[in-house]
Amino acid sequence: MAWRYGFSAMMVAVAMIAAPVRAPAAAAARTDPWVAAADLFFKIAARDDAIPDAGVPRAVAQDGEGFIWLATDGGLARWDGTGFKSYVTDPTDGSGALPELMVNMVYADRAGLLWLGMSADGLWWRDPQSDRFRRPLNRTALDQAHITLIVDDGGDGLWVGSDVGLGRVRGPDHRATMVRDLPAGAITALHRSRSGALWVAVGTRLFRQAGARFVPIALAGVDGEITGLHDDAAGGLWLATHGSGLHRLAAGTVRHWPLRVDGRSPPLGAIIDAGAGQLWVTSRAGIVTIDPVRARIDRLVHDANLAATLPENGINHLFRDRSGLVWVASDAVLSYVDPAPRRVLGLVGALRPTPTQAVDVAWTLGAAPDGAIWYGSPDGPASRLAPSGKGQPGAVRRLSGARRDAQSFAFTPAGDGFVAGGDGLYQVSRDGRRSRMLSPLPWSRLLIRGTQMFVGGGSDNGRARSGGVATVDLRHPGAPVPTPWSGRLTDPRVRSLAMMPGNLLWVGTARGLNRVDLASDAVTRLVRGDAMSGLRGNYVSTLLADRQGRLWAGTVGGGITILARRPAGWRAVAHIGRRDGLPHDTVDKLLADRGGTIWASTDGGIAQIDPASLTVTPLRAADGVPFTAYWTGGGATMGDGRLMFAGFGGLTLVDPAAPARPATTAPLRFTAIRANGQPVIAPAGQPLTVPTGQRSLTAEFARLDYAGARDQIYAYRLLPYETGWTRTDALHRVARYTNIPPGRATLMIATVTPGAHGGWRIAAPPLTLEIDVARRWFETIAFRILAAVAAFAIVYMLVHLRLRHARARQKHLERLVERRTAELLASQSELEKLAYTDTLTGLGNRRLYGETLSRHLGAARHAPFALLLIDLDRFKQVNDELGHDVGDALLVEVADRLTAAIRQQDSIFRLGGDEFAIIIASLDSSRAIGDMCRRLYAAFADPVIAGPHRLQVMLSIGAVVARAEGLSTEAVYKLADLALYDAKRSGRGTWRLSPTEPGG
User: Fold this and answer.
1) pLDDT category of residue 755 using cuts at 50, 70 and 90
2) Catalytic residue check, 39
């Protein structure tokens, strides 16, 4: 797979026969097949109209303060992680004016000073103390040049490439001179190598600086204009050209890579060091990547079928910032990517069976002893993904015999695998090519202990149902044999299994937790609400035994409960939930790494938990986590100690042994300051004076950690007037104060991180701004006393006059108030009707549904109720074939029939599209749900007249019963929706009652 994203197969041979160069330390990492299979997740900072003045991005740089600068053909912009500050030719915000809008190049020198290369107005630099743009002091040909290239000279100066030749800017006085030792013509490429040598390309010719002279270099076989130069770790010089591909110059010898895309050679541009020993090249056909160690050329391109690929293929500039992120300026998008993620990887493209097929949805995982990953899909067959043995991932292979809905995998030490799912229990060979059915019944969970395998049931495939726990003798695998104690479990639907010393088997079900003593077959049931269990959710989705002999139980909606053996028996000793830093209270999978640290995937992301202190460290976007939601039970520990989680969108691979993302040194900066509404720049080493007037201060700020910009939490306060901190998020990072008392004050800005038990703490020393608020003449004590006396007299007179006037108007106002009140009540009634009514059907809308459901949930313990979710089968076909007018007419008639079928005390709503909801109030038994569903189906026995069409309507119904208070509307809806999904899978036109009661 030498060309990952689309170069011709002919070029593979070219790449492989090239002589390798000396390998850097990062080479070993690139032979890891899972690292090779991982996708790069490009994140968009801004696109299209979000880029100031809708300019085309041309270049990117990072200044000494840490800000990212974007040069466009519509001006200059400074990016702070969440927003831009624009610089144009006619500013209105007090910032400096550009000499022209077309900015070709932006570059920060070693001192952090920002330099601009203009299209027709030469070279400029930005003075950070005044936020103004200035020219070099002396006049040269660069003043009116088209500047395209800037590099440092290894000291405090710059080399500048332009259409009039090569210039040099020296020293702090910024005096410019022109180089006379080069042929006339535009400088097309410029690079200072690791050894300090300067390389210059003038069109098709290459020169190397030698003292005060520039020596021409012979380039046999290099055709076309040289557009990019960069050296590799072995000392070779890579050349990008405008028509003849890539070339490498080493020891006087040139090797060639004549690239082809769609039958032609793409024009290439500048080359950058992307880190991890790789070079990246701009092109109009994506990003060309160079691995100098293996002399391998790849290409990163936009793929509409894969999430987070390169946003577009027309690349204008690449830049690597100090944190290692690579910024990509393309035709309409500014994006960035971590080019070498190590601790957290995302795999999406590896789940695509063939280049023409969609990516598989992997919702369950198993790690085979041979290093392969087996995964199941809700709507596809179980599959095997294994390394190819050449440092590359192999192709997806479908497992023999195992069909859809695989829910659990288990492996013997010899490597044979077992697959449990909706289509039965299978024994599968280690290569996945041979299989044998052990049971046609649906099974959900597997656990191997010695020569015995425990098999959890409780699934329903529409044809048969299994329940409880059975066993399989691995010496002679056959049909599962039910255990004698299965009937005593809290529920037959098994969702998790764990084995602990002492012959204890823990069984998590949809309605609680069970401890089974295999020696005596004794079963101890633990459910939510028991003081001993400490469970805060009954649906036990995942179990884990840690090194301290404790059991970790992850639940749906109830976080994690930790149980330990005590003299009086097993007891809950701790609980971890969202208030403790867990990303979400629905825990999908618990895994332990080789060091004993616990890792949890949740519906809100992944977290790392210290088993000793129970400190929770969420992994966020800045850590490279590609997905925020995960499948229940989807996770596995690989043989090399890495952890794999099944996410919504792909797989997340965590390497606990890799170093965590270091505590970033990204600075905290003020991005804008306004005093009395006017933009100001804080003077260095002096307090900022706030003049008399409004005495207001507005300070915007940002921590320049771009990978985690939107995860940042800030706090601010103004001393001495505030002792506590005000917290704010990344989208509201501004401190505003008005009417500040005169005198000295200190504004403090800090970033915060979550602390224990829902608290937070200051993460680093705060950023401070000293201010001096000027006093006004009337702020003396004498004036304030006189003003107070005068104000009292005036108020007294005004009150007296006001009372006299009020008496005269009292009756008139009473009549006016009465009339206006009546009008207001009428208007309010009409507005409430509009706000809570679906305009098409006249039913209650989603808003009314939410409030009604919340009200019923508040009284569910005393007044149980049921929620029915109703979906019209094949409604989309009606819209597509008969038109939306017929679809609307059908929805109106369906609403009328549903309304006629329900009881007076029940409620019906349209949630959107063809989705309806019914709340059955005062539920006396589950039988009422069946009665209601039969009435609903009877209501549609006759065809529905929709315009000129007679349509036979079929309904799928999912129901859930709520009997406990304190439940969330989302949890109830999710269970009803799962039941609806089960009804649809069972053939449509039927109904299903959720086997799980929320909170039960």
Assistant:
1) low
2) no
